[in-house]
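Researcher: Here's the sequence for the chain we discussed earlier.
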Amino acid sequence: MSPWRLLGVALLVVGLGLLYFGWQATEGLEEQAREMITGRYSDQTTWFLIGGAAAALVGLLLTLFGGRNR
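Model: Thanks. This is the structure I predict for it:
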């Protein structure tokens, strides 16, 4: 397995973990109250969700296409 694919798998796992923690944070009472009042989640929760989605997407792409010979 190429180093790029290994990096892709690692990023995919980290990204999915961040998405999980971000999703768990949105289910908290404080976050739900904040979202109901302001219409937004806290900055930390938002960054968990954005960072997790980006890391998972890059990880998936590297896993699928990272080891191809050019």
